[in-house]
Amino acid sequence: MLTRETTQAPYELTKADKRFVGAHLVVAVLALSIGSLFGPLQAFEWSGLDLYGLLEPIGLGDYYKGLTLHGVLNALVWTTFFITGFLTLTTIIGLRRDLKYPMLNRVGFYTMVVGLVMAGVAILGGWATVLYTFYPPLEASWAFYLGLTLVVVGSWIEGYGFFFTYYEWRKENPAVRTPFIAFAGLITMAMWQIATLGVATEILTMLLPKAIGLTNGTDPMLGRTFFWFTGHPLVYFWLLPAYLSWYGMLPKQAGGKLFSDSLARLAFWLFLLLSVPVGFHHQFVDPGIPVGWKAIHASLTYGVAFPSLLTLFTVVASLEYAGRKRGGKGLFGWIRALPWSNPGVSAQLLAGILFMFGGIGGITNASYNINLVVHNTAWIPGHFHLTVATAVTLSFMGISYWLVPYLTGKPLWKPKLAVLQTWTWFVGMLIFSNAMHVLGLLGAPRRTPLGEAPYVPDEWGGHLFRMSLGGAILLIGVILYVVIVVRTALQKERLPEEARVEVPIAESRFHPQLTPLWLDRWRPWIVGTILLILIAYGPQLVEQIANAEYSSPGFSP
Amino acid sequence: MSELMPGPEEGMDAATSHHDPYERRWMGVSIGILLTFALSVAITGFALGFQVPGDHARVDPRTVADTPPWDRPGLVEVGDGEYEVYMLARQYLYEPNQITVPAGSTVTFYVTSVDVQHGFKLQDTNVNMQVVPGHVSKLTADFDRPGEFP
After folding, report:
1. Distance of alpha carbon A531 from alpha carbon A147, whole angstroms
2. Whole-angstrom Cα distance, residue A109 to residue A440?
3. How many CB pairs under 8 A join A and B?
4. Are the beta carbons of A549 and B134 separated by less than 8 Å?
5. Over the stretch B115-126, which tens digit does the pLDDT of each residue have?
6. Which residues, other chains included, contact A384 with Cβ-Cβ below 8 Å and sequence gap of 6+?
7. Which of B38, B52, B126 is opposite residue A299, by nearest beta carbon?
8. Scanning every residue of chain A, which has its alpha carbon at the shortest distance from the alpha carbon of B57?
9. Does the bond joining B96 to the residue before it have cis omega, within 30 degrees of 0?
10. Backbone angles phi, psi at B87, to 5 degrees
């Protein structure tokens, strides 16, 4: 029997490309190591232990500066650099050809690095204490806005590099279904290019002109609309590479196959179609947007929950297939039979388990009037610590456990410790995020140094303590992760030739050529996406832009 | 890439390649769940009146504190058991920061900001609004039982 596995030798990245992908990881891990230190500091402050005072001598004593660093470095930098690096690999390996214009992708990467340095200096200098949403009329230095713009533009350029490469591949392979890992990465990048138009418009037409003194004010409401045009699909930009791994790699790592290639592809197309026209569900309690438009976005948000539910089915079915193949019996026996001792697997399984709660919370947030209960409370950061900080971050940690050995040709340093690390993250986040959700329901506001607040009732006390306990465990988890990947990369020992790590690529149960052609056609989906955005956003954007009043003076904390 | 076979793997039943019966059922269940949610939200929001704030009015954040009615923020009785509150948000307080009405009153909040964005929430009520400079956030709540709503 012929399968792709037996007919195709694994495709290898060149040495130069391994270094290039590795450079993305170095920046990502560096950002995570610094940004994560400020997470527990926030949690400790809430429970009454203010360690910011100790950081005063080095200029990091400000609660909101710490919160800005935590949000920007963890949610924006760690993710974006990891993702662009990872998608470089999935494009090359998936399409089995080198990048069409390797220099173009290098230009993109260094543009991102320059932008990161500019934004980083602005935040550390105290010229951009505006949190990672930088809502006007909070005003940051021009260097912060220009830096963020360069990071986004750099990621666009890297995306162009993927698209050119795909175009070449398609010319060489007119009748072949796009290999799944390349397909999923390309959709992620296409979605990102469309989505970031919102924040690019906000920065270039409103925030940057104000910061360099060309205008006297901003329209904060219009700024929010532009921001959330990008803000929600940003969540999917983080998630889809994790989904790529759950669908396209994890089944292989677990010893099975992808349950359904066509359902996996359908889910990715639906994410492209529905990620953007749902942004108002972050603005349910905003003034300036009629309730009818909010309701339309609420309905579309239920639409984007559909591919998430498909993902739940296909990923769990693929894992069950693997577990039964490994001898697992009974209703739940297959779960035990999965290779939990492989840290790359345990990380993604644990990430998936917590993400189910994240998904339920996400539907709660999106449920229009129910949002009134949770908006602007600690529930919200509790929620996104399950999504971006677990489903995404813990999966990326798991990916690193094969990716770093693959890129360096060195064995993973202490695999058992790495398994323990994944559990540390899981347990820490379980405690932390549950406490935050409960605090939110009790009315605790987000983005507030509660340690100084006079109104904290006694009933919050236990939950605030659990939050800082979870934060402490997570701090141990992130330190372990950084130590493991750094020790792996820096050790002298090399893997022998026959034990080289390969990129795990899951086969589908059925040959991808059986997947219907309409699931491998770009044009109808792109046209549909643009049309849906025009319908869901067009009239409100025209109205809000036409009525814009740039009357809010800036406030620099 | 010629290694990629154009046809199905040997021994594979092409007819079952898509839409496993469980897949179909799961899709049906998913759509059912989501439609139920959407319907509940539509009924409670638009028929029963548990509504989110909408578009109300614009103001100039530079002058609003000197413009009636926000030049004298506070509570106004506009009818029998009906009140309006004009509120200003600024770092780090609300004016007024406490109001008292008899149980059974209906209160409409008109809140705007003189500086940055603020979050306005009354615990144990459905009042939760983003307060954005340049706009007036408006929401009405019935206080039909006595209590404190911080």
Report:
1. 31
2. 39
3. 196
4. yes
5. 999 999 998 888
6. A75, A235, A358
7. B38
8. A288
9. yes
10. -125, 145
